[in-house]
Structures are given as C-alpha cells and as structure tokens.
Design brief:
The chain is built from 13 helices and 19 strands. By secondary structure, it is α+β, with helices and mostly antiparallel strands. It has a 5-stranded antiparallel beta sheet with strand order 4-5-8-7-6. Strands 9-13-16-17-18 form a 5-stranded antiparallel beta sheet, with no helix packed on it. The protein has a 4-stranded antiparallel beta sheet with strand order 10-11-19-12. A hairpin with a 3-residue loop joins strand 6 (234-238) and strand 7. Helix 1 crosses helix 2 (20-39), helix 3 packs across helix 6 (125-140) and helix 3 packs across helix 7 (145-174). The two termini are 33 Å apart. The relative contact order is 0.09.
Length: 402
C-alpha cells in the first residue's frame, strides 16, 4: 500500500484553480499516475459505481452542461490528469453496479470497507447533492431517478459519438492545427451547425492544452459569443493560459506569450537515489527524465552534450548532495544560496531577477536534497553544492519523449 499526505489548499492556490474539489481531484489522479508509473502499470481501476455516474450527471445539469457533461464517465477512458502519462488508461468496471450492491457484497464475504469522512462535509456541492438532493428527488419525484440519469448518460454518449464523427468530416476545412495553436476559418466556423461549432471550439482547446479538465460551460458560452462577433482584434482569456483571438479572417486559439510554458506540468514530488557508479542512470520524474552519473568534474559524460552547465546539465559535489534527492515544484518561502553568494535568496526574487514569468514559476523543477535546494533547474545551482576536486555527480534534465 502506498500512502501520501499532501495539501490541497496549497496546490489549489499555487495553480490558480478556483475549485477546491477540482484541485483535490487533480492531486488524487496525479498520485495514482505516479504509483502506476512506478509499478509499470498500463491502467488503473477505480471503484466508481452507477450512483457516482448519476451524481456526476446531475451535478453537470445543475451547472449547465452540454453533451460532454451529460455523458458523465465511461467504463474506459484516457487518463484525466496529468495529461502526459504515456497512454495510461482509467478503468471503471463497476458503473453498472450500485454503491449498495458493492457494500452488500463486502458484507457477504466478510470484507471491511472504508468510508471517506470527507463525503459527509456539506460545504462541498457533490456531498449536498448526494445526501440531500438525490434522496428528495427519489422520494418526491422519481424513485428511479438514478437509473434515469444513467440512461441519460448512455444516450448522450451515443449522440456525442455521432456528432463527433460529423465534425471529423468537416474538420480539415475549418481548422489548421500547428504546435500549441489552432486557427479557425471564421467563415467556415460560422457555416457549421451551432452544435458542431461548439464541438470544434472545444476540440481546439484540447489540442492547445492537452485536455478540457478546467473548461466549464460558461467558458464555452463565452467562446461561442466571441465567434458570433463581427469585430476583429478582440480576445477572450480561458483557463490554462489559453487565449481565443478574433482576427480579420480567422479565430486563433493559442497559449498567451506569457503562458507559452518551456516547462511541462510537474505534478507532485519524485524521490531519487543518486548513483555511485560511473555509469549513466536515467529515472523519470513526472514529464522529465533525469540522467545521472557519478564521476569527476573534469570528465563530462558523452550524454551530457555541449549544453551550457547551469541550465539543463550540472556537475554537483557528490558529498554535499548525499544519497537521496527529490524533484518538486516551487513552494512559497523557498530559498536557495545561489552560486557565488554568501547569503540566501528567496526563489521568488530569483525568478524576478531572471525574468521568469509568474505563470511559469509553478512548473520549474526544484532539485532538493537533505541540506536544502541544490538546483533550480534551468537557472541556478547552490553555492554549497558546486563541484570541486572531490567526487561529483553529473545531472541532466530533459523532456520525456524529446
């Protein structure tokens, strides 16, 4: 069993997520993705039941939803978060079974099951829906309301499958896709049926960001409204640093210049054992590959290439680092003693001095050992870890898949 303790409030704040529940959801799936990667798993099975599906659909109805929200969740789906998980799948084999049936089965076989105490906190909308609204609907309106919502989800999934096929037929005439950018022909987009127009804009958003986790119905309405405008030169800011711009003959979905991340999303914390042998060791840290090799400062490994040390490849004092390190993201209050300085400096000030946009800072990898932060990856190493005549370790960060 693998257990971790994390702070969803800090996660939510550092990433600018408006919903606590959304932040906690991302943390859960990020944790499961890390455990799956460590185990070499290709899929993760979760215990969502038909009750969870019905509640999800009702929640989307209350918020205002299109077909994607009404579809709810499926038995097999791509991994919801983080995006770059190497094809990891999510299985939900219990969607045709109620929660009570799973509980009854556990009782029959004498298996004790756990209840999440967080499910009874009424400040969360889903919990109020589960404990209050759904029982009232069953008692006063439709005893089979959960089954009705599940049927609605199945019907919506079938409808969505059809209209997505229709969008595939016209997509090439509507949009041009390049790296982190989708350019729509305004004329072709307006000629589409409103439903296909909506799906085209949503697909464009996913192509730019990788997923639609933070895209809400209100954002879709705003995108459609902008598409109906005749003026050019206007724009709309969307979650994830995405901007929808209305130009003369085009609508462009892209990351804003400030949000054009050179760093992939680093979710969670990754622990690393440093090598003692003069052979290259490669370990994953989320979307990064960390290559390490013990040696001497005067003998740069072939794999390190000709890149500038201090950016993506560094040579650090092996004794100062110790045997263990971890890779994580910046936390408020973090400090480093930068190379060449006597005192410490807040990472916030270091980022400011190096003109790192605020939107990038939450994705910069931090290489930390027991003594403290040894390397702000891509920027600066610590004074106390600089290489000397003593044994060293060469470390390089590269994008997984690049």
């Amino acid at each position: 069993m693998t257990v971790v303790k994390e702070d969803p409030h800090t996660y939510q704040k550092e990433r600018g997520i408006s919903s606590f529940e959304q932040g906690a959801r991302e943390m859960r799936y990020g944790f499961m993705a890390r455990v799956a990667a460590k185990a070499g798993a290709k899929a993760v099975t979760v215990g969502h039941t038909s009750d969870d599906l019905a509640e999800t659909v009702m929640l989307h109805i209350l918020r205002g939803s299109g077909l994607y929200g009404l579809r709810g969740m499926g038995e097999v789906s791509d991994w919801p978060w983080p995006i770059d998980t190497g094809g990891l799948k999510l299985f939900r084999p219990l969607l045709d079974i109620t929660k009570e049936q799973t509980a009854e089965y556990c009782r029959e076989i004498g298996r004790t099951y756990r209840e999440d105490s967080g499910n009874y906190m009424w400040r969360f909308t889903r919990n109020r829906l589960r404990q209050d609204l759904m029982p009232k609907l069953e008692q006063d309106y439709n005893p089979q309301v959960r089954s009705a919502l599940v049927r609605l989800a199945r019907t919506a999934a079938e409808d969505l499958d059809f209209v997505e096929g229709e969008l595939d037929k016209v997509w090439q005439g509507v949009a041009v896709v390049s790296s982190r950018k989708v350019q729509f022909s305004r004329a072709a987009l307006r000629d589409l049926h409103p439903l296909l127009q909506r799906l085209a804009l949503r697909r464009g958003y996913i192509l730019v960001t990788g997923d639609s986790t933070r895209l809400r119905e209100s954002h879709m309405v705003a995108m459609e409204h902008l598409a109906s405008e005749d003026r050019s030169g206007i724009s709309l800011e969307l979650p994830g640093g995405v901007v929808l711009r209305q130009e003369f003959a085009e609508m462009v979905l892209t990351l804003s210049s400030e949000q054009d991340f050179p760093y992939p999303e680093l979710d969670g914390e990754y622990f690393i054992t440093l090598p003692t042998e003069a052979e290259a060791t490669v370990v994953p840290a989320g979307p990064w590959l960390v290559t390490m090799q013990a040696g001497t400062a005067g003998e740069k490994p072939d794999w390190a290439g000709a890149g500038s040390e201090g950016e993506w490849t560094v040579c650090l004092d092996r004794g100062a680092i110790g045997d263990q390190a971890n890779v994580r993201t910046w936390r408020s209050g973090d400090r480093i003693q930068p190379l060449g300085m006597q005192g410490q400096k807040k990472l916030q000030d270091l980022f400011t001095d190096r003109h790192v946009p605020r939107a990038w800072r939450g994705n910069v990898p931090i290489f930390e050992c027991q003594r403290g932060i040894a390397w702000v990856v891509g920027h600066r190493i610590a004074e106390w870890v600089k290489a000397s005549d003593a044994p060293v370790v060469w470390i390089s960060f590269s994008r997984d898949g690049n």
